[in-house]
Amino acid sequence: MKSMWAIFKREFAAYFATPLAYVFIVIFLFTMGAFTFYIGRFYESNIASLTVFFSYQPWLYLFFIPAIAMRLWAEERRTGTMELLLTLPVPLWATVVGKFLAAWAFTGVALALTFPVWITVNYLGQPDNGVILASYIGSLLMAGGYLSIGACISAMTKNQVIAFVVSVVVCFLFTISGAPLVIDFFRSWAPLALINAISSFSFLTHFMAITQGVIDLRDLIFFFSLIALFLTANIVIVDLKRVG
Amino acid sequence: MIEIAGLIKRFGPMTAVAGLDLSVGKGEVLGFLGPNGAGKSTTMKMVAGYLAPDGGNVRIAGHDVETDTLEAQRQIGYLPEGAPAYPDMTPRQFLGFIAEVRGLSGDAARNAIAAAVGKTELDPVLDQPIDTLSKGFKRRVGVAQAILHDPPVLIMDEPTDGLDPNQKFAVRQLIRAMAPEKAIIISTHLLEEVEAICTRAVIIDRGRIVADGTPAQLLARSRHHNAVTITLPPAQAPLAVSRLKAMPQVANVEETTADGVASVTAYPKDGALLIEDVSAMAARENWDVKELYAEAGRLDEVFRSITTHDAIRARESRA
Question: Does A243 touch chain B if contact means CB atoms closer than 8 Å?
Fold first, then answer.
């Protein structure tokens, strides 16, 4: 546990050691704001809620989260520090989880910094803050899901660009798997059980359910088991690379 | 402390390490030599627990690296090839991270870091990002990281690569000072380094050990071992060559002339000592000897004679 904490701290600090963190946070907040206020016409809607704000998040995360995750393992591999990291007396799972949690905490910081939007909506009206809190929790969970996918893919390559592009594609598939576009493709030939299974993997479906203000146990289990699944895959991939 | 038995590693069709057996005890400094691609780094990576072997095993102080990995890794200080370190961190932050991961905290961590920094003379750059350090400092950050927890086993892949002669001297002093308490393996391309600090030299080629002995034993395999060279005026050289050839212990005599001075080298049969007989002869014959010296041997020659050229090796492995 202590060594995992050390890994977490180093990884978290690494985001802030370069301009990366600041550039990321500024662009993230700016984009969030632009989508909410300009494209989402937040003011014109005259509704005191953050539904618009949260509805764009899956699509923004699609690009922002892989950008956070891509360096997690690919950079270690490229600079050779992977060899150092894996010869320290730390269980592999602790290294994988420590790195993931650091990236997740960083995402949490970026998300928390959207608080002016929350203040604005409270200033303008009386929103349901319970729903907003649930949405923030859902947003963080969804970010964790994307991150675990990105971390796993980052472990496969030493090239960050490849890690980014592949992660975006995989995350995209997970985002839209419940959308009519995908379901129609399968409907013509696949059994109903498979279609239901595929659509149940949709981040959108689970996230939107949470943003209604209801944190259903099933949605929590979905995101946590997805994270667990990809972190396990991450461990397996790193371990397989040891074999050569 | 380090026991390697039947170690095998394959990369696709190529066998990088082909059944290596080696054991290194406390107080030994083993110099790992071999051409590039001979399997030195691969072996060290397996000993440190980074690569998984395809066969055989490694035990560190009784702990199997594959099955008891963490306990084995606690015993090891490892300097990977190229001395990697996190470029955005300063040496202070980096060593702090290593100390924490290694379970050191509070005073123990501070003392360990201070000792490692002192031994590697990192003081002047402690708060500078590692990215901006010179090659010599970077290498020493790697060495400091490896010795931080005062491990009983040290595995260092080219610890003096990229250092200037002063820095090389300092790192060698450091290794020599730690040697009595530890089992140390270093890999190097510098043959003088082996003579300077190693108690034992192992040469590997194509994943196999081709020579194992003290540096003196390896030197004795050299053609130049106990060879005697005299330099004298060219006019006297032909006579000297014929006289030396007539000596029963002499196997062969070679002559070269440069800058108006002839050098005549007599190679002994079976490493016999020639120096006294040759100097007595020179006095008796009244040659104008400018220099007269014997050689201990040349390690680079031994190295070349028992290892293969990389191009040949690549051709063979493809065949």
Answer: yes
Q: How far is A113 from chain B (nearest CA, A)?
A: 25
Q: Based on the domain organization, do B159 and B239 belong to the same domain?
A: no
- Domain hosting B113: range is 2-219
d(CA B264, CA B285): 15
Type of residue numbered A229: L
ipTM for the predicted complex: 0.88
Name every chain A residue with its beta carbon within 8 A of the beta carbon of B128.
Answer: none
Residue B23 pairs with which residues in a beta bridge?
B3
Give yes or no for residue B319 having a pLDDT over 60. no
Same domain, yes or no: B160 and B138: yes
Closest CA to B17 of B41, B46, B39: B39
Distance CA B181, CA B185 (A): 13
Q: Quick one: B267 and B131 in the same domain?
A: no
Q: What percent of chain B has pLDDT over 90?
A: 50
Q: Which residues contact B285 (CB under 8 A, 6 or more apart)?
A: B239, B240, B243
pTM of the model: 0.87
User: What would the two tokens of residue A239 be?
Assistant: 């371990």
The residue ranking higher by pLDDT, B136 or A183, is B136
Q: Which residues contact A106 (CB under 8 A, 6 or more apart)?
A: A12, A15, A21, A68
Three-state SS at B160: coil
Kindly indicate the confidence band of residue B280, based on its pLDDT and cuts at 50, 70 and 90: confident
A185 Cβ contact list (under 8 Å, min separation 6) = none
The answer to whether residues B176 and B237 belong to one domain is no
Which among A13, A80, A244 has the least Cβ separation from residue B84? A80
